Every structure is written in C-alpha cells, then in structure tokens.
C-alpha cells in the first residue's frame, strides 16, 4: 500500500514545495559548473549558487555568504568540522543525544569523549552538565545537537554556546533536526561550525547540505575549485577552500527553492505548526493504555517517540506501513540518545512532522495505534 501519511520527516522531508523539483529539472539542462567558464551556462550556475548562499546567510544570520559552504549532507559537514577541530587525544564534550554522524567521526579522529548526559526534556539539567564538565577543565572542543533526532528534545544551544564563548572553547552544532523550524543565529552563537542537511527542515533535495563556518579552509577533500588553478594546494579562502570538485547544481537549485519556502513561511510559523501537531499526538497517544510516550509540553520540537507494550518497535512500524503510515523504528542512528533515555534495549517508534502534515495525519496515526495496542 502506498503511504498516504508521511511521518518520517526527521529522516527526509519527502513532500517538498513544487518549485524544488521544477528547479532541479530545469537545472539539469541549463546550469553548468560555477567558476569553470565565462559562458552563459556557467555564469547562470554561479548566480544560482551565490543566491542560494545569500538566502542561507539571511536565514541563519551569517554576515558573509562566503562562510556558507555547500556539502552533500550534514554528515559531510560534520566530518569537515570534526576533522578541523578534533585531533587524536583531544578531549571532546558532547551531549547525551548525539547522532552517529557526530560520534563516529570523533571516534575515528581518536578523540576522548566526555558525555554530558542530562534528563530528557530538561534544559536546565543539560546546561548544568555542560557547565560542570567545562568547569572541571581540560575540554578542547564541545559538540552538541540542537534537537534530538530521536525524541525532539530541544537542547539549550544558546546557553551552551555562551558557556563556550566565556571559556574560549570551540563549538560545533549539529542542526540537522532544528534548521528551518527553530531560530538559528550563527553570528550571535559564535559557534565555529554549524552543520545541517538540505533535505530535512530546509525542504531541499537529498544530496545537499550546508556548513556554516568561521575562517577554516582545511577541508577533507582536495581538488579543483575553479580558482587559483596554477597552485597545487587548495585556496586559502572561503568558500573555495572547502568546496573541491564539481558542485551539485541541480541540488543547489532545488535547495534554493527550499530556502525560499522557509523564508516565506517563516521559521516561527513552521516550528509552531510542528509543535502543535506533536502536542496533539503526544496527548492522544499518552491516553492509550499500554502506550509509552516520550514527550513534554516544553522543549520539544516536531519529533515524537513512543512504544507499545504488546508489540516490538519494528513490528509497529511494519503494521503502520501496511496501513499507509510511514514512520521509523529502532535506534535511529543515535544509540547514545537511547542510552541516555533508557530505551537502548528496544528502541522506539518515531513520528516526525513537517510543514505539510495536518491534524488529519495525526488523527490517522492515533487511530491505527489504538487498534494495534488493543489487539
């Protein structure tokens, strides 16, 4: 059965503004490589790419659009950031809710990880743990997600960023779940890097991402940049220093339209819509005997996890799929979050919403879960 209720937006926002696909289709036959020629197709590509950077800079308050780097996804951006700042033996403080896109690069870099575990949906607990660990000294780098991809817990990144600024500790923020639905001010936060995908809350296509960064130019890939061609080393300026190789112009053209959508709809409105739908789902599911809901009326974004006492998570997801509802089940590539929340043994079922979901979608989810739990 075809899914007619799509609630897996924390993985990918499958339903996009129509302009995204149209821009990508047009780009395939009209856009060449930016910076690789003075002909019309190359110049038009350069205009589209620069406009996309400017839109991102406007959305995230980046004073210089050159500090907006195109990546293939958030994982790509996080690898650039981690490998710029974490070395073998570096002591890195992370939240208890990190995705493998953070944990695995840090492990590969040989960093020593210190985990600031805190209570679910308790921002004050998170601030306390970060401050306590930082004050103990010896921390070389802090990495935190802005919102848990498993539980929708909105971490207090503004306060964590302030702690880092006060102590002169570099900061990387994973904004994979928050970009486009929660305010994000790059210049005010003072983070060294903020990574995000294009295909989630920015409503762009898969294979796109953004990395907001300070003046770091040591990338993880070297090659052609369209500039300084006489030199056999990468340019020492942005964005060229971190963008080796041919750009994904169909993806960038689509991402540009996604950013336009977010800016026109407004981050506050998108976030409020998501919070309202999740609040309805949380309240209704919590009233069903045998359903455990991981939620709160504060510090929760557009993601909700739950379990049923009489079915395993994978079975629940499969049965929902049979009834036309797409969710995700398991550990969601974030075992650390499940260890922190005490759900590592069985995982959870995750429902996640976008600007295109409706109350009717939530009502169908609730109706089917009630029937599954009953039988």
């Amino acid at each position: 059965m075809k899914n007619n209720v799509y609630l897996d937006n924390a993985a990918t926002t499958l339903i996009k503004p129509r302009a995204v696909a149209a821009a990508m289709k047009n780009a395939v036959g009209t856009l060449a490589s930016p910076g690789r020629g003075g002909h019309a197709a190359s110049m038009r590509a350069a205009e589209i790419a620069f406009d996309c950077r400017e839109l991102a800079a406007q959305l995230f308050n980046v004073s210089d659009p050159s500090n907006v780097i195109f990546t293939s996804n958030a994982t790509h951006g996080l690898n650039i950031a981690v490998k710029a700042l974490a070395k073998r033996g570096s002591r890195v403080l992370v939240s208890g809710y990190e995705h493998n896109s953070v944990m695995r690069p840090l492990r590969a870099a040989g960093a020593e990880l210190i985990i600031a575990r805190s209570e679910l949906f308790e921002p004050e607990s998170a601030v306390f743990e970060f401050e306590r660990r930082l004050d103990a000294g010896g921390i070389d780098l802090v990495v935190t997600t802005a919102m848990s991809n498993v539980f929708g817990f909105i971490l207090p990144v503004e306060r964590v960023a302030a702690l880092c600024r006060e102590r002169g500790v570099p900061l990387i923020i994973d904004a994979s779940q928050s970009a486009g639905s929660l305010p994000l001010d790059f210049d005010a936060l003072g983070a060294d890097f903020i990574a995000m995908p294009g295909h989630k809350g920015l409503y762009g296509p898969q294979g796109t991402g953004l990395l907001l960064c300070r003046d770091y130019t040591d990338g993880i890939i070297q090659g052609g940049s369209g500039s300084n061609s006489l030199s056999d080393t990468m340019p020492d300026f942005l964005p060229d220093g971190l963008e080796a190789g041919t750009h994904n112009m169909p993806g960038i053209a689509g991402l540009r339209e996604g950013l336009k959508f977010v800016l026109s709809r407004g981050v506050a409105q998108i976030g409020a819509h998501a919070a309202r739908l999740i609040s309805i789902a949380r309240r209704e599911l919590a009233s069903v005997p045998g359903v455990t809901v991981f939620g709160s009326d504060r510090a929760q974004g557009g993601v909700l996890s739950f379990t049923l006492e009489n079915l395993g998570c994978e079975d629940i997801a499969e049965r929902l799929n049979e009834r036309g509802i797409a969710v995700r089940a398991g550990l969601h590539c974030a075992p650390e979050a499940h260890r922190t929340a005490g759900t590592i043994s069985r995982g959870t079922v995750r429902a996640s919403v976008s600007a295109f979901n409706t109350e009717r979608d939530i009502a169908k989810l609730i109706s089917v879960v009630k029937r599954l739990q009953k039988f």
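The first helix runs from residue 18 to 30. The chain has twelve helices and 13 strands.
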